[in-house]
Every structure is written in C-alpha cells, then in structure tokens.
Amino acid sequence: MMSRSSSSVRLVNMVFYAYHGVLKEEHAVGAKYEVDAELYFDFSEAATDDDIIKTVDYGAVYRKIREALTLRKYFLIETAAYEIANELLSDFAVLEKAVIKVRKRNPPVDGICDFAEASYSASRG
C-alpha cells in the first residue's frame, strides 16, 4: 500500500541589503532584509534516484529572490513576498506551492522591534 507523503525544501534566512519602504528615507538609506522560502513539491523520485535533475535548482531560486529584492523597489514587504511566491511558481514547473517570508530588520516603528515579517503562500490550481 502506497502511503501519502509531502515534501519541501527550505532556503532559510537569505540576507540582502535593499531599498524598500513607505518612507522616502528608506529608499535612500536602505535596510537589511531576510527571506525564507519553503518550496513544496514531490521530490520522492529525485530522492530514490539521487538525481539532481529531478529536484529544484536552489541556486536558481536564490538568484530569482535576490533579483526581486535588489533590482526592484517596493513600498511594502507584503508586495515583495507576493511577487516572489508567484514568480517562483511561474518559473519552476515542479513547484506545487511556495511560502515566502520577507523580514525587514529594525522597521521604522516608534519603539524597539527586531523585525517586521510578511508571509505569503501561493499554490497551483
């Protein structure tokens, strides 16, 4: 009897310096952003065959995320998370679902806050 399974690959705490934010100063000064990507797809065939061709290319995923964060400017981290998740699904046919978390360190709030985080999940169908 075949059991039902689920699999994912996570890229955790990718760090980029970028120029996003609602305030004009944020676009000039920039800030540190962190991104987590959880990529859901069936990698059982890749695992049983130990075949890199049957899984997702982590380097290509990283480059896509880096480009989204460093070559564009967003007012909202929500927009960045949304755009990245949808682009990954569009660009990598093997993916069933992508969960993207974008964190902004030391957000401009009137007090102490380690980070603000937006999480977005996109799936096929």
Please describe what this structure looks like:
The chain has 125 residues and is of the alpha+beta class. The chain has a single domain, classed as GTP cyclohydrolase I, C-terminal domain/NADPH-dependent 7-cyano-7-deazaguanine reductase, N-terminal domain (GTP Cyclohydrolase I, domain 2), CATH 3.30.1130. It is built from 4 helices and 4 strands; from the N terminus they run E-H-E-H-H-H-E-E. It has helices at residues 24-29, 44-49, 58-70, 77-91, and strands spanning 8-18, 31-40, 97-105, 115-123. The protein has a 4-stranded antiparallel beta sheet. Helix 3 packs antiparallel against helix 4 (77-91). The longest helix has 15 residues, at 77-91. The mean pLDDT is 92.
Please write out the topology:
Blueprint: E1 8-18, H1 24-29, E2 31-40, H2 44-49, H3 58-70, H4 77-91, E3 97-105, E4 115-123
The CATH architecture can be named as 2-Layer Sandwich
Low-confidence stretches: none
Radius of gyration: 16 Å
CATH class descriptor name? Alpha Beta
Strands of the biggest beta sheet: in what spatial order?
Answer: 1-2-3-4
| Structural domains: how many | 1
Q: Total number of β-strand segments?
A: 4
Strand fraction equals 25-35%
Q: In CATH terms, what is the fold-level topology? A: GTP Cyclohydrolase I, domain 2
Largest sheet: 4 strands, antiparallel
Number of helices: 4
Instruction: Give the integer mean of the pLDDT values.
Output: 92
The coarse silhouette is elongated
Give the helix proportion (percent range): 25-40%
* Category by helix and strand content: alpha+beta
CATH superfamily: GTP cyclohydrolase I, C-terminal domain/NADPH-dependent 7-cyano-7-deazaguanine reductase, N-terminal domain
Distance between the termini: 27 Å
What are the secondary-structure elements, in order, as H or E? Answer: EHEHHHEE
